[in-house]
Amino acid sequence: MTVTPLGIPRRLLEFTLDGEPVRAPEGSTILDACRAAGKDIPTLCEGDTLTPKNACRVCVVEVEGSRTLVPACSRKAEAGMEVRTGTERARHSRKVVLELLASSVDLSTTPRVAEWLKEYEAKPDRFGPDVARLNEEPRVDNDLYVRDYGKCILCYKCVDACGDQWQNSFAISVAGRGFDARIAVEHDAPLTDSACVYCGNCIEVCPTGALSFKSEFDMRAAGTWDESRQTRTTTVCAYCGVGCNLTLHVQDNEIVKVTSPHDNPVTHGNLCIKGRFGYQHVQSRD
C-alpha cells in the first residue's frame, strides 16, 4: 500500500489578481499564484529548485500601494493585496528588459524568448548597430560541457547551484563589476584547473544555454540538434544506491544529454558527475 505524506497544511490567503479573487497557500509567491490561475508571466532567472535572485526583472507586476513594480518570482502573496499583471506599465517594463537583454547577449537558445519578443513587441535592434554587445567565444576546455558566456544574462543561478544552495563546491562566482561582470571560476582559469567537480548542476539551471553539454554544443554547431526528434525516458541511476532519477534525452538512438526531474524528492534536479555524464557505456558499440 502506498502512503502519501500529508505534510503540514498551509493556510490559504485571499487576494485579488487582475480583478478576480484568488486563494493561494501561505508562503506562495505572486508568480506561484499566477501560474495556478493560468496566467503566463515571463521569467528567466526564476528556478523551481533555487531561491529567487530577482536578477532578470522580466516577471514584474504591479501591486496596489507599491511605488515600484515588484518581481513576481520573489514577492510573497499577502492577504488582501491587489495585483495587476497586464498593465501598460508592467508590459512596457518587460518589453524594455527583453530588448536590453536581447541586444547585449545571444538569446537564440533561450526557450520562449522569441515568443515573448513578439508578444511584447520588443525590438532589440532599435538601439542601433553600435550597441554594446557581449561577444565572447565559447570556452571548450573539457570533454563534458561548454561555457558560452556570449549567452549569459547574469542570472546567478549557476553560482547558487554550485554554492551553498546545492553543491557547495563554490567553483563559480561573479568577477568584475558593471558591464564587465562575468561568471567565472577562480582566476578565470580553465575549468580543468578549478574546483569544479563536473556535477553539471549549473547546466541544469541555466536558462539560456550559456552552459550546455558538449554533445549538445557540437550537435548545434553541426546543425543536427533537433529536440522534436528526441525522446525522454526517466530511469534510476545504476551507479550507487542513492536512487537518483535520470531523464535520458535520446536522438537517433543515442543519448545526447541527461537531466533530472526537479520534483524528485531524492535529487531535486541535481546529480553527480557519474549520473550526469557517465552514460557512454550504455551506447558502446564495441
From TrEMBL:
Residues 230-286 form the 4Fe-4S Mo/W bis-MGD-type domain. Residues 188-216 form the 4Fe-4S ferredoxin-type domain. It comes from the Bacteria. InterPro entries: 2Fe-2S_ferredoxin-like_sf (IPR036010), 2Fe-2S_ferredoxin-type (IPR001041), 4Fe4S_Fe-S-bd (IPR017896), 4Fe4S_Fe_S_CS (IPR017900), Mopterin_OxRdtase_4Fe-4S_dom (IPR006963), MopterinOxRdtase_cofactor_BS (IPR027467), PSI_iron-sulfur_center (IPR050157). SUPFAM superfamilies: 2Fe-2S ferredoxin-like, 4Fe-4S ferredoxins, Formate dehydrogenase/DMSO reductase, domains 1-3. Residues 11-89 form the 2Fe-2S ferredoxin-type domain. Keywords: 4Fe-4S, Iron, Iron-sulfur, Metal-binding. The keyword Iron-sulfur applies. PANTHER family: HYDROGENASE SUBUNIT, PHOTOSYSTEM I IRON-SULFUR CENTER-RELATED. This is 2Fe-2S iron-sulfur cluster-binding protein.
